[in-house]
Amino acid sequence: MQEYFKNKKVLITGHTGFKGSWLSLWMSMLGAKVYGVSISIPTNPSHFELLNLNIKNDIRIDIYDSKKIAEIISKIKPDYIFHLAAQPLVALSYQNPLETFQTNVIGTANLLNALRNLKNQCIAVIITSDKSYDNLEISRGYHEDDKLGGSDPYSGSKGAAELVINSYTKSFFSESNIRIGVGRAGNVIGGGDWAKNRIIPDAIRSIENEQNLIIRSPDATRPWQHVLEPLSGYISLAINLKKSNHNNGQAFNFGPSSKDDYTVQDVLIELKKTIKKLNWKVEKSNNFKESNLLKLDCNKALHLLNWTSTLNFKKTISYTSLWYLEYLNRSENLKALSKKQILEFDELRKNKN
Fold first, then answer.
1. The whole model's pTM is what?
2. What is the CATH number for 181?
């Protein structure tokens, strides 16, 4: 990876978020010149702040501001862009549907429109979601040419963003210096996630508050994966596009094996093996609808990118629980632990390949 990113200008939108902060750390470790664009620090606590990355080019703007986005991209002239800035929560999309569509759809269009005027070669990997699919709760695992859509505002916004990406790519970037890739990832977990209405952050907060965790759907199945898994997929996609334009405009699923079915309760049982104070109870809620079953078929990434998931379920939970245990013990070595997990993961990935 280092030969592709060392001393290269890498722009990460949403760099202060959960996945963005991990990617910023990883790119910094690879020797990249990291530029970050985010509207704010999205959570408290914040993985980004705990890492104390000291990114020199830390830019705070709203991705919805088309003029400023265009100015930044024109000034930086990035070699790579990883677009992660988004409103990422299903529950919040019901509360603020218009803001969700503005950020996820128009924000993506603003980025793509700014790339039209860029003269240097640039690889842009745009992150959408596994929830881009019109989820019929089928068991075979969705593949990339399945129908897009979604019944909730978040899923709808991600499906709509995909239509925008496809239109811009075919209209402006099919034969140009700009190459576009799309990443769709399953449910991502790992140390440093503090978003509301996500199972593990809620679990850690319940421990801090000395309360039982309330869960809505203990039998809901998700494609659980550690945050480093999809990030390695995005990086692999960027490298592939750098080598060739053969997969320009293509979307790729990044997730665990579709044979691995684990529920919310499975996650909590495994988590409790390390974090002993965790306790939970089930309370059904009809506040908003979420899919019960969601699986991805990742064969396209395997065949075209030589990418496959690295960690099994137990290792995924182990990485996650050890990070949060250090946090609960008020460790000052969370940055060192995050770096260690990246190095260990990368070594496992290389050995597997």
1. 0.95
2. 3.40.50.720
